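Help needed: design a sequence for this.
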């Protein structure tokens, strides 16, 4: 007796061409979505980091110039030079060398050049000349300016002027105002926001400017 075998298709047959095309298309769509999601996240993270760094740079600058001006004094015949785009004065700074602490007399010069703030320091109390110049807050601030405190007796209020008459005053001013526009990245709005910042620094050792001097 002859045996009969039923002819049937194997269950482990390969994918058809259409199934392969669909699988590749689906994989491409998912991969593209993941790529753009990760890319957007990295861009937002980078911008957020830049915003934090810029805010840190501005805060450090304001703390540094606040400390320098509060220790400013007339030294060696050098006057306090105050202009709208330039500020030069002598101050004292602490420096450390291993376990030793030194007090240095330093001449500091701030200049505004092409929307960049340049800071130059020269150590006057050292036997060897030491001059350092560097750009600070490049691309972070704009429209930076300095103003100096004069007292208006008639109005009984402070009158901020864009220059300090150093030749007549022979002293440091009672106050210095720093004004600039800072550019911050707003993470929530995903845009760069401009913020006006104005800081007034009072110098306890200073004197009020005399407009008639």
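Sure. Designed sequence:
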């Amino acid at each position: 007796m002859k045996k009969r075998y039923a002819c049937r298709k194997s269950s482990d047959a390969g994918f058809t061409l259409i199934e392969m095309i669909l699988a590749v298309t689906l994989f491409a769509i998912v991969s593209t979505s993941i790529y753009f999601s990760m890319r957007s996240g990295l861009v937002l993270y980078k911008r957020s980091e830049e915003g934090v760094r810029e805010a840190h740079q501005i805060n450090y600058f304001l703390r540094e110039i606040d400390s320098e001006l509060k220790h400013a004094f007339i030294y060696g015949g050098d006057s306090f030079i105050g202009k709208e785009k330039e500020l030069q004065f002598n101050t004292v700074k602490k420096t450390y060398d291993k376990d030793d602490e030194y007090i240095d007399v330093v001449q500091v010069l701030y200049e505004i050049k092409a929307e960049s703030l340049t800071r130059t320091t020269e150590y006057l109390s050292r036997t060897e000349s030491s001059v350092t110049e560097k750009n600070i807050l490049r691309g972070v601030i704009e429209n930076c300016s300095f103003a100096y405190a004069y007292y208006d007796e008639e109005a009984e209020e402070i009158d901020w002027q864009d220059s300090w008459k150093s030749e007549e005053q022979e002293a440091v001013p009672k106050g210095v105002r720093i004004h600039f526009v800072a550019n911050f990245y707003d993470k929530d709005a995903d845009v760069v926001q401009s913020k006006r910042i104005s800081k007034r620094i009072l110098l306890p050792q200073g004197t009020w400017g005399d407009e008639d001097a």
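The chain has a mean pLDDT of 80.
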